[in-house]
Amino acid sequence: MTEETRQVLDVDVLFVGAGSASLAGALHLKRITGKAGLDISIAIIEKAREVGAHSLSGAIIDPRTLNELIPDHLEKGVPFEAEVAEEHMYYLSSKGKFRFPYLPKSMSHHGCYVASLGQFTRWLGKICEQEGIDIFCGFSGSELLYENEKVIGVRTGDRGIDKHGNHKSNFDQGVDIHAKTTVLGEGTRGSLTKTLINKFNLMQGKNPQVWAIGVKELWQMPKDSIKPGYVAHTMGFPLGHDIFGGAFIYGMKNDILDLGLVMGLDYKDPSIDPHHELQLLKTHPWVRSLLKNGKMIAYGAKSLPEGGYFSLPKLTVDGAMLIGDSAGFMNGQRLKGIHLAMKSGMEAAETILNALQKNDFSDSTLSDFQNRIDKSWIKTELYKVRNFHQAFDYGLLPALVNTGLGLLTGGRAWGVLNHLPSKNGHEHLTKLDSGSQSGGNGGNSKYDQLEFDGNYLFDKVTNVYHSATAHDEDQVPHLHVQDTDICINRCTEEFGNPCKYFCPADVYEMTGEDNNRHLQINFSNCVHCKTCDIMDPYQIIEWVPPEGGDGPAWVNL
Amino acid sequence: MKICVLIKQVPDKDSSLTIADDHLTLVENNITWVSNESDNYALEEALLLKEKHGGEVIACTLGKDSARQVLKDALAKGADRGIFISDSSFDNLDVLSLGKVIASTLEKENFDIIMSGLQSDDQGNSQLGLILAELLNMSHGSLVMGTEIIDDSTIRVKKELEGGWFQWTKLSLPASISIQSGINSPRYATLKGIMMVKKKTVDDVTASDISSDALESNVTINKIYVPDKTKETQFIEGSPEEISEKLVELFKNDIKVLN
User: Domains of chain B, with CATH numbers?
Assistant: First the structure.
């Protein structure tokens, strides 16, 4: 196999990642180009073995975009679990629970639906295929292809390479997919998106993106013990006031309960462990009572962009666009992004139709995408909460005051400022000698009380088993650490190797003693959440897609 | 060569399986479905034979609607067409009756070779290949580790025996051959292969298409449960030479970590 024999596939428009943004964008594009008398080819590549297997969210879906895209979605069997039937917001102390007396209308989930994002994207994917869109599952994007600084497509990852980098007998060389426009809907912290943002400096003049990590379990409960459409959100325990985030508890059909914890990846203490925080949550008497006689049946984790409006990058370059979580279309205050991701895909589709008609795919035409976003309700929704996340740098209570003042003033920080700055999440980590953390290399003592009994509380390996994650072990690890000397020496001393803690899947392990210590990367555990790529204090971990088809096999997350 | 490959859709080995409260079925809403592992090797072997000798590869499955996916995957890898056998009346049949359904479907095709995986990852009956050989009057080879077409009427197969031994056997065609996992490296579905799927045909077969005598189930499932974990300690006695000899024997034949 040589460059001469590499296969090339030409399509009109290529979407990378078959999540809600790409699927909605591709479907809308197929329809509006059809109406305009254009017969175009649209392809979507997806690294998971099937659509939905790498999709994870709460989820509560605001049907606003779906009403625009597929007005008869109920007749078409949209797999919503239930309309939100009752909603609660609690502040938790370690034992107690206090109900928020008042939920602002803008934070209410009235009229929204509890759903599994994985089921939702599977459904949307089927509709796309029925309407003539090619979805190629098991194909990752390994690099963007350029011609004179213009994006001309994506090279898919090679398959059948062993751990030493040699070709196996079933080696399959990646294909160059050439497209007039490449739309990156890779989801959170997309690997191609990251290279594009860096190459063209697309974050210039913007707040850095800040992420959170969501860690989630599905519980099979005894009959009729959880009502479909039940929604509860909490603040306080176990995260306390210094870490952004909270828990969510949703009721699905068939007595399944969603339990998850979202926490900002801009915490200070390097010994914080998101998986352990979720386990701590379950030691709370009320949460524990909700889970009584239940059985944990699935686990997953995913990062999510929390930065909001001011953290949106420049959305277009010559030949390419960013949509969905890849761009950062998420409303942190409403805890929702699926409707925004889908809408961003649809606005991208409108832009592409125009580009096809002009036969001009340069940035000068594609950049109209930003104008369309600004004229749409996306801007209205995100601009109102533009300073929501930044205020959490000051702690929970000031942030709640800020949220309240923002509601009164259309999003002004502290009721006054138009634009609060932020810094990169990993820059919040404090060094061990600064004395601000309880942990260090021995781990955080707040987790000492956790007893992983295998019934209610689980260690990471048990949880990872329930994510049905599988990677062919005979491949080059897909987590590239540029210089492990930094891990072994500098990081151990300065931060106590936070990768051991922030990874929710036990991928990173420091093994050996003294002079023989080394970093072991258990890449086959990886649930593709991207937290390591985001939170590593030295930014030397590069997450790239493993062999296509590998990774979690989520069904209902 | 006209080759049929039987492929079954089974729960993914990496899924966490939950047994339903009735202890008769699995909870299906948390399962990922995949093509049975050894069937993937059977498909690859069939595609390799086709590449070498020409002919046609037809993928066939029996299952519920979701099982169409295994045919799609097989077509994407290079099978020429598919046969999809599905009917709710087949749900609880035993393997003999299922064999009759499949035999009735395949009979008119006059296949030279029917390839199947050695056993399914779910039921593990390991009987279907043999039953089809009997019903369709074909020769049969099981635990097959290698194949070689001799001429239009003969195939040579390498069969796995006990204790790390193999046996090459000549079978007259038509033949039903059950393939052991690991005999080749199954290919990936390519982009072009996936695009070709739309142009390939899948014939649907339901109960009304089946001409067979009374279908029934003589096997009933009483209970599905997770095996009890029991520790078993074996003491080996004798002189050091005898012990090491017996140990090697155990490693080879019982634990199968040595060849």
Answer: 2-209 (3.40.50.620)
